[in-house]
Amino acid sequence: MFTDMQKWAEIRRRVLTGEISKRAACREYDIHWETLQKILTHTEPPGYRRTKPRGSKIDPFVPIIEQILESDKQVHRKQRHTSQRIFERLRDEHGYDGGITLVNQAVRSVKQRSKEVFFPLSHPPGEAQVDFGFADVWLNGELTKVALFVMTLPYSDAILVQAFPRECTESFLEGHVRAFEFFGGVPIRISYDNSKVAVAKIVGNREREVTKEFLRLKSHFLYEDHFCLVRRPNEKGHVERLLDFARRSFLVPVPQINDLEQLNVQLAALCKADLERTLRGKSGSKRELLIEEQQVLRPIPSEQFEAKRLQIVHANSLSLIRFDRNSYSVPTQYAYRSLKVVATVNEVRISCGDELIATHSRCWHKQQYFFDPLHYLGLLERKPGGFDFARPFEEWELPVCFGILRRRLEAELDGLGTKEFIKILRLLERHSLATLKSAVQHALEIGASSADAIRLILEYQQEPAVDLFCLDGRPHLKQVRVGKTNVSAYQSLLTTSTNLGEFFRS
Question: How far apart are CA 398 and CA 405, in angstroms?
C-alpha cells in the first residue's frame, strides 16, 4: 500500500489543482487507479481497514465470563474467580480450546466495561467531610497501629489530621473538637460514612438512627449531618484522597515518638504549613480560601464541649470496675454498687450519683489492672495483715521517712505498730502526700510518732499565717495608744473567788 506521506500530499496537490490528469498521475507515479482514488479521497493514508470483523475463539465464551464476574460480586472478594480459574472452567466445562491470553484480555475488557463512572461533585463553602484511617508509628520503640481522624473542607482544601489509640466514640468526638478549633469555626454540613461510632442503625438509603453521643455532638455545635450510601465512599472522595495524601506526606518515614500528643502537635503544624499551597484550578492558596470560607462557618459555642463516653458499670467484691477491657479500682465502700464511668481520651472518671469517687489515667491496652492504694486504706485498717501482701500496695512507693516511721512504731508498740502506721496513712485521704511527708519528717525530728501527733502537726502547718495590720495610710490610727495591762489587778479577782468559795462551803 502506498504510504509515503510526502508523495501522497504531492499527488493530491498536482491532480486536484489540475496540474496533471489522473491518468498522467498513474503513469508518472506508477500507482493503480484505485490507489489514486483513495489518495484523492483522504487527506492522509487511512491505514489498513478490515472490511469484516475478525472472529476470535473467545467471542462465544464472553457471555459466560460476564456471568461469572457478575456472580462474583455476591461473594467474599478472596473467593472470587481469577483469570486462571476462569480459563480452567471454560476449558473443562465449556470446551474452550484457545489460550489463556485471550481469556485474560476478555476478563480485562469485561471488568473495564463494568467499572462505575461518577459525576464530579460540587463543594460549596461550609461543607466538611470526616473519615478514619490507620497508620503505623514507632511509639516508645514499639511499632504501633494508630487511628487517624481526618476532617477536610473541600472548598478550601484545608485538612486536619489527628492520631488516636483507637477509632472509638471518645476519639471521634475529640477529633471534631480539635478540627473546629483548627478551622476557626463549625461547618454547616459534615459528610460521614456509616461507622458504628456514629450510626446505631441503618433504616433506609439515607435514613440513620445515630448514637446518643453523636446527637450530643450535633446538638452542641448545631451542624447538619450527611451519611453516604452503603459502600459508596465516592460521596466523600475528597477526604479519602487527602487521607492518602496525609499518610504519604506527613507520616513517611514512620515517626518515632514518645506519646501521641507529641505526634498530634507535629501533625497540626504540618497541616498548618500545608495551607500555604495553591492547588491547580484554585483562585488562591489554601489559607486564602480558608479565610474566605470562615465567613460561612458557624462560630464555636462559648460553652466547652467535653468529648466523653458514658457507661454504667458494677463494682465487684475487689472494689474494681471493668471498662473497655481493663479494670480500675474504686474506694471499698462502693463495692457491689452500680457506678457511672465518664471516659475521655486521657482519663477515666468514676462517679456514684453526683459524687466523683475515683479518677484514673486512660489505658488503651487490654486486661490491665489499675489500683489506687488510697481506695483500700479503710479496708486495710480493719485488715492490717494485708498491708504487705495485698496487690494494691505492691508497687506503692512511699517516701523514705514513712519506712523509718513504720519501723519506729513497730519497735515501740510491738504488735500495734502497723495499725498505728495505717492510721497515719489514712491521713492521705484528706491531705496530699507532699503535705503528709513534711509532717512525718517534722514528727521524726521532734521524736513524736503517733497518729494523733502527726495530725496535730498537719493542722498546725496548715493554719494560715497571721498578717500584721498595716497603719500606712491611716494617720488617725497612729495616734491611738493602748496602755499596758496591770496583771496585779487580777489578784483581787482571785481573792474574791476564794472568799466566795469559803462562803458557799460554810
Answer: 11
